């Protein structure tokens, strides 16, 4: 099984690339979704969240109180504190999902994460794909997706790293400044490359 990491900034199109690959038969794991699972299922993480952010971190039914945690983390500038609790647990959780995907017979495993390069364990992934887009394109996409204001989106972009500076650390760069069809075509070509690598 080929393992692939996908990263890029907000509005770059990385989720669209992953959607294309999922349709082509890949197992796609999103880091944000995995983090939510870890927060609910890992007893150590749950205890740390309650200790740091209060019992309101979880609803009465045991589900995550995302509104409370988002307000604490983003509204009060405690994102690093939240990440310090959750992120160390993600590599092991991702590895477990990888094993499950391989046991189920998947040829390609894809892990999508904005902070992939910060949290990547050496040797965990065969390839890393970076999706890039000009800032104007990114802002327009996020506006349509989230109905956020341009000011809000620019602030979110500023908080992320400049992904143009890490192109030498990845195996493939997809530039997404054109149409959706062009992006899908680029994604399909790279996916076929993965399948070819798997067969060699």
Provide a concise account of the structure shown.
Helices cover 55% and strands 12% of the residues. By secondary structure, it is α/β, with parallel strands linked by helices. The protein has 2 domains: 2-26 and 107-195, Rossmann fold; 40-87, no CATH class.
Please tell me about this protein's structure.
The protein is α/β, with parallel strands linked by helices and 200 residues long. The protein is 55% helix and 12% strand. It has 10 helices and 5 strands, in the order βαβαααααβαβααβα. The chain has a 5-stranded parallel sheet, with helices on both faces. The longest helix has 20 residues, at 180-199.
How is the topology of this model organized?
Layout: E1 2-7, H1 14-23, E2 27-30, H2 31-41, H3 43-53, H4 66-75, H5 79-86, H6 90-103, E3 108-112, H7 116-119, E4 127-132, H8 135-146, H9 150-159, E5 172-175, H10 180-199
Parallel strand pairs: 1-3, 1-4, 2-3, 4-5
Helix pairs in contact: 1-10, 2-3, 3-5, 8-9
* Straight-line N-to-C gap: 12 Å
Q: Remind me, CATH topology of the largest domain?
A: Rossmann fold
Give the C-level CATH assignment of the largest domain: Alpha Beta
Helix content: 55-70%
Question: What would CATH call the homologous superfamily of the largest domain?
Answer: P-loop containing nucleotide triphosphate hydrolases
Inertia-based shape = globular
**How are the strands of the biggest sheet laid out side by side?**
2-3-1-4-5
pLDDT averaged over residues: 91
Q: What's the β-strand tally?
A: 5
| Unreliably modeled segments | none
Tally of helical segments: 10
Secondary-structure element sequence?
EHEHHHHHEHEHHEH
């Amino acid at each position: 099984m080929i393992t692939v990491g996908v990263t890029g900034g907000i509005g770059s199109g990385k989720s669209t690339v992953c959607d294309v690959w999922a349709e082509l038969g890949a197992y796609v794991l999103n880091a944000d979704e995995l983090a939510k699972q870890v927060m609910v299922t890992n007893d150590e993480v749950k205890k740390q969240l309650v200790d740091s952010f209060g019992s309101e971190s979880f609803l009465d039914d045991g589900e995550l109180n995302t509104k409370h945690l988002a307000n604490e983390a983003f509204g009060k500038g405690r994102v690093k504190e939240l990440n310090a609790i959750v992120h160390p647990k993600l590599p092991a959780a991702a590895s477990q999902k990888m094993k499950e995907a391989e046991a189920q017979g998947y040829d390609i495993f894809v892990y999508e994460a904005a902070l992939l390069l910060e949290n990547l364990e050496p040797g965990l992934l065969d390839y890393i794909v970076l999706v890039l887009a000009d800032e104007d394109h990114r802002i327009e996409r996020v506006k349509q997706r989230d109905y956020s204001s341009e000011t809000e989106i620019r602030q979110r972009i500023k908080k992320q790293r400049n992904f143009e500076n890490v192109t030498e650390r990845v195996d493939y760069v997809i530039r997404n400044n054109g149409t959706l069809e062009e992006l899908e075509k680029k994604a399909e070509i790279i996916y076929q490359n993965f399948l070819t690598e798997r067969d060699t």
